[in-house]
């Protein structure tokens, strides 16, 4: 799992040492296992938020772990052209390469450790697919796509992009140097990530070495979700066992605790976590397919606008492997 790394984590800023007597470590409210499925043209995904009530996810809507899969030549797949309205998609590429293109003429490529942040707002058409050379050669593909809700006042803003390179992430470690914390968005213990958000949120990819513990300060008014990308460990104030493909949603408190098992599988060198949380929007959610609105009437309008071409048109000049 390459993402972004450093040769020596001991040169990085460190989290503060938390005083257990003065810290309220959050308990695990719910522990779920992501079911497997397929998305787009047939790439495998784990549905990380399946079975979790929206009020525990708010301000998030949906999370897919894409892969991890080692494609043979000719096998890499993406998504066809599709619309979005009313939220933001955050695509974090851990391993592999993904091209994206939209109906506004924007596009680009993200690779190991990069993030492509698309604010759909009032509406957009876009496509995500592996580049032609990767389709030809095959190779590793592993990433995440997170959907972040927009508040009512921002549902119909002008679409925009942020391409965040892996090297831009805020990097820090624990007091004992047992982890690498990559802050993609928000702020953790005063260390900010590069992502700009409409709703206050934190996103971080954490690598925790075998036997290491992470005590992570967390805003009390944010929700808190920990998804395991690889490895095994324990999570929460009560040290609940957790493993790859599981999500822990947390109760109230001002810090998170995760410990990596001292022994991991031979092909998994560390516990890999995607940690997310934010200030709940607390507005009604009407979600169907590629649209996230506040009411059923707004959903109906979104589908009508899409069918009448108001969300954009597919550009004449398209990525060569997406026809």
From TrEMBL:
Protein name: Pirin family protein
Pirin C-terminal domain boundaries: 204-311
InterPro entries given in the database record: Pirin, Pirin_C_dom, Pirin_N_dom, RmlC-like_jellyroll, RmlC_Cupin_sf
Pirin N-terminal domain mapped to chain residues: 44-148
Free-text cofactor note: Binds 1 Fe cation per subunit.
A Pfam family the protein falls into: Pirin_C
Similarity-based family: Belongs to the pirin family.
Residues holding Fe cation: 82, 84, 126, 128
PANTHER family: PIRIN, PIRIN-RELATED
Source taxon at top rank: Bacteria
GO MF annotation, one: metal ion binding
Keyword Metal-binding tagged: yes
Keyword terms: Iron, Metal-binding
The UniProt record lists the keyword Metal-binding: yes
Cofactor(s) needed for function: Fe cation
């Amino acid at each position: 799992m390459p993402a972004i790394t450093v040769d020596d984590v001991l040169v990085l800023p460190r989290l503060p040492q938390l005083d257990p007597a003065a810290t309220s470590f959050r308990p695990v409210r719910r522990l779920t296992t992501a079911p497997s499925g397929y998305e787009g043209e047939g790439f495998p995904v784990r549905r990380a938020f399946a079975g979790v009530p929206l009020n525990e996810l708010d301000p998030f809507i949906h999370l897919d772990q894409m892969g991890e899969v080692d494609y043979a030549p000719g096998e890499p797949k993406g998504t066809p052209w599709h619309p979005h309205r009313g939220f933001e998609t955050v695509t974090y590429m851990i391993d592999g390469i993904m091209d994206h293109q939209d109906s506004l003429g924007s596009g680009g490529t993200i690779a190991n450790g990069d993030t492509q942040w698309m604010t759909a707002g009032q509406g957009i058409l876009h496509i995500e697919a592996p580049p032609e050379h990767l389709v030809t050669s095959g190779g590793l593909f592993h990433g995440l796509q997170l959907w972040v809700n927009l508040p009512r006042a921002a549902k119909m803003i002008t679409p925009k992009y942020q391409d965040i390179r892996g090297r831009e992430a805020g990097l820090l470690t624990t007091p004992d140097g047992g982890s690498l914390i990559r802050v993609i968005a928000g702020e953790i213990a005063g260390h900010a990530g590069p992502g700009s958000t409409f709703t206050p949120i934190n996103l971080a990819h954490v690598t925790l070495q075998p036997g290491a513990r992470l005590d992570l300060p967390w805003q009390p008014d944010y929700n808190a979700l920990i998804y395991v990308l690889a490895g095994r460990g324990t999570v929460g104030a009560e040290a609940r066992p957790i493993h790859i493909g599981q999500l822990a949603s947390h109760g109230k408190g001002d810090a998170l605790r995760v410990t990596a098992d001292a022994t991991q599988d031979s092909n998994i060198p560390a516990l890999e976590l995607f940690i997310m949380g934010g200030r709940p929007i607390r507005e009604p959610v009407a979600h169907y397919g590629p649209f996230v609105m506040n009411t059923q009437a707004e959903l109906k309008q979104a589908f009508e606008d899409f069918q009448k071409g108001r969300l954009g048109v597919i550009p004449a000049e398209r990525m060569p492997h997406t026809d």
